[in-house]
Each structure stands twice: as structure tokens, then as C-alpha cells.
Amino acid sequence: MDTKTVQGYTLIKDGVNRWRIPKFGKMRVDAIVYVNDALLSLLHDDQSLRQLVNAAMLPGVVEPVVGMPDIHEGFGLPIGGVMAIERHGVISAGAVGYDINCGVRLLRTDLEARDLDKETLYKLIERIEHYVPTGIGKKGRHKGITRKIFDDVVHNGVEAVIRAGFGDRQDLNYIEDGGRLSGADISAVSKEAQERGEEQLGTLGGGNHFIEIQRVDRILDEKLAQAFGLFKGQVTVMIHTGSRGFGHQIATDYTKILWEGAKKYGIEVPEKGLAAAPIDSKEGQSYYKAMVAAINYAFSNRQIIMCDVIKAFEDVLKKTAESMGFKLVYDVAHNIAKWERHGGRDLLVHRKGATRALPAGHPQNPSAYMQTGHPALVPGSMGTGSYVVVGKGELSESFFSVNHGAGRKLSRTKAKSITKQEFERAMGDVIYNVGSYKDIVDESPLAYKDVEEVVGVLVNRGITIPVAKMVPLAVVKGVD
Q: Of 209, 240, 362, 404, which residue is the catalytic one?
């Protein structure tokens, strides 16, 4: 039996690129982590496995608690964590995360990357910044519209912003859950969160959020790529952001509320980061209503940004969106909790830094992707490649979940020690919008795991299919 000890835990080899921590102590179920040997060696320096073990102690948890290949330490559940809970169990704000429905959206075009020189790329990212405010705390440039539709947005999601003139109804077919989860209730959201939300629709934020102009570098599955409208040399645009201050404030508020709720209901929670209350309790129900409001808000935020990005292309290239062939490929969430059917049971699946990937034929696929499975989007770090993958039926072992990115290997503090020369060498020819490297050095490619290794873990296990790899041409980031 192949075993390794990491962070003081004994891991047992459980097939290709899969390691099991058998339940012990107060754990109710086993924990599983998907890594190869190289990625496993990176887990010695953080607390991600301890956080997985803690999640396996919560009431109602279903086996197994899962760590994705990009797993790293977070607050509560590790980033790259998946936890499914039965109806009699608990809901946890920390197992969703502070940026509720942080997610990724991919746009395709008919443009060829070879036709965009560096001068044009500089103009494009400059114009994108003109329309999309970047950085922490920035207010949106559509305030006159978004304040009026805010209540509609949180309850009805992307449909609300389409009615306000952002995009087309056909976009709904290419967004997870059609851009709306039911069950939102703004009365469950604090006044402070509402005020932040009204101001920030249509903004990117800072940290690891980005807008990236890309070139399709490799097609790895011709048939699936054709179904997704992807071809080699094509210009694509990837948008990565979430629910901004609105979701962050909701998470902040309910971490306190659920922590007190756990005490009230006599639930033992290993750490405050996993603050949890019974799903059917007043506190649990209120968090779910508020969280869904943030989910709908984030889908809508990416919809507005998409429209503004297209407008920037129209301004710079002097062409219409139609003539450039702009189409939404897909939009996936990766900080979310929602009800799904697994193994004949309704489970509340918490994904934190993990993305759903439904295989071909799964009934919850959008109609456009029923025959292929929907695209799952895996961005690398700034300066490295990103992937489109598709899940296979065997992915049911992880509740149809894949990694949401490359995953950090250096904390933001440690990444500050990266020199200017190291940063510029890692970025290569990629254009970026920030004047000083110091403002974004913590997002350097050197701070992240190798996306090739991370994506390869599930591919080599035989549960995902790689479809295409995109490489960055120009990146828009926000300064914290």
C-alpha cells in the first residue's frame, strides 16, 4: 500500500492521482485529494489538508470531502475544496468563500490573433479600462442604470441586465443555471451590503481578477473545439471576477451569524472559517437567500463587463460586434453552494475554488451543450496558458467538479519577494495595464502552480477531456 505523510496526515494512494485520508477522530467521512507527486509535494507548507479534515467533521457531510488539483490554504474550506451536504446537515459560508460566485466567462471571436499588433493590444486594454473600473472599492460607470435595476438583478440575475440593454437573451443559454439561481431574497441582505452592491455592478475588482485577451494556442480535441466555436490562432477574451463588495459583505455578515448559530444549535465547528448552521434553521435559510442574491449579482456583473469589453473592441477596431463574431462560449461559477442531484439524493454542494463540469448527456447541461458536456474553464496565472476542458461520466466521484485554476503556491506575502527581473521574465511578451510591477507582483506566474501539471491530474486520471489551450496576449488587472 502506497502511503505518504503530509502535514501530519497519512495519505493512502487510491488510484491514479488520487489520495485518500481515511476518517479518524471526529471526521464523519474520508477526504480525497487529487494531485500527482509533484503537486503533492507543494502541500507540505500550507494547511489545506487540515482544512479538508475539518470539513469532514461537519454534520450531514457526504463522503468524500474533495480537494482539487489546485488546492491551497483558504479561510475555512481550502480553495479547491468541494463538500456535499445532505438536507439534514449544515450550510457553511466559509465553504463558499468571501467572493460569492467568483467565476470565469469565455468569449470567442472570428478575429485572428496575428492581426492584433502590440499597439492595437495596448489600445484595447486602455479602452477596456475606460469602460470597466478596476481595483478594490471602485464604483461602476453604469450607476444610473444599475441602481435602478439592482433589486431586479439580485432576484432575477442576468435576465434583469439583458432587459436593461446589456446583451441578448440567447446569452442565457451559455451561462451556468441560465444566469439565475432561485431563492434570493434581498431582505436577508444587510443595508451595508446592499449599498456596496448598488455601486459596484460592472466593475472588475483587484486580486486575482482579470480581463485577458488571448490567442487559442492549441486545439486538443477537434470535435469538441468545433462544437464550442474554437479554432487555432483565434482571439478569445476571458473575464474573471465575482460579486465584488456585495458578496464580500454578505460573507462577512454571515460568518458571524452562522458562527453564533452553531453555538445556538449545539453544532461543533472546528474553526470559525467553517461557520455553519443547520440548512433548515432561520440562520441557514437566511444565508442561502443572501448567498443566492450574490450569485445572481455576480453572473450579472460578468454580463455587463462582457458588453463593455465588446464595446471597447468596437471602438478600437472600428468594427461591429457582429462582424467580429463575438459569442459567449460559457460562464461558470467557482464559489457557490447549490442543490444538485447526486447518487439519487438531493445534496447541497459547496464548491470553493472549484468548477462544475457536467459530461455529455447530463440532464442539467444547457441544451446547446447536451451532446458534448458544457465547457469548464480553467484559467492559468497571469502570463501563462488557460484551458477549456470537459468532464467525463467518471467525474461523478468528485460531484462533477474540477479545479478552477492553477492554484497558488506562494502566499501573497511571499510573492512580494519576486524581483522585477523575475517578474518580467515570467511575463514574457504579455502586455499588462499596471504601471508598476510591484502593484501586481503577488499575481506573478511565479506565485502559481504549473497549470499544465494541474490540468493534467484529472486528464491523466481519465475524468476530463482537454479541448483547447489559450495563451495571453494582454491582461487587464486591478490594483489592490
A: 404
